[in-house]
Amino acid sequence: MKKIKKYLKKHLTKDRYHHTLGVAYTAMALAMRYNPNPSNSDFIKRAETAGLLHDCAKCMDNDKKLHICEKNGIPYSSFESSHPYLLHGKVGAHIAKTKFHIHDEDILQAITWHTTGRPEMSLLEKIIYIADYIEPSRSPIPELDEIRQLAFIDIDKAMEKILSNTLKFLESKGNPVDKMTQTTYDSYVRPTYKGGNLA
Ligand code: DGI
Ligand code: FE
Ligand code: FE
What we know:
Elements: H1 2-11, H2 14-34, H3 42-53, H4 62-72, H5 78-82, H6 88-100, H7 105-112, H8 123-134, H9 144-151, H10 155-173, H11 179-189
The chain binds 2'-deoxyguanosine-5'-diphosphate (DGI) and fe (iii) ion (2 copies).
């Protein structure tokens, strides 16, 4: 953990580092709430690790993100190449693996998918996705405090709410939506939806 924190302090801005600690603590709190095996704290430790590392590639130059993907055979879509900030999850997971020797697939997937989500996320993936949205220093978002409570009551309802809010936010800004963000939304919020243009 010390080595990870040292790396983050060096590579992230002050605000991003502060956000990262918030995500790690919030992820631990959610892991305490939903721990599938309350007689041991391994799940809580893993939530902390994933939370700390989720944005470790966030402050890297976009060119460098693309270069790391190229060099290491990390596949990316044309949408991601034109919006390379979306790649900080995939590149972050690569750093977690190569620099910090994390081979826990669930942690690596939680880092990889924390921005867009994906269908059928594991409990740990959901925890990181949600913690990223609700951590205490997140700047005001509509209904944030309701979602903060909901996260500790019903994790899937919190997922739905965050996914719909994110899509609404992207639409209001006129930002194009990544395929995976849309697919995740459809799978959680409109599970019967089978593709085509949204009305
Ligand atoms: O890295 P963080 O800021 O902590 O959070 P994040 O990894 O969830 O990234 C959030 C940003 O990503 C936010 O500005 C919205 C954007 N984003 C998420 N899904 C999509 C998206 N942007 C586009 N253009 N399309 C998406 O589908
Ligand atoms: Fe992020
Ligand atoms: Fe984040």
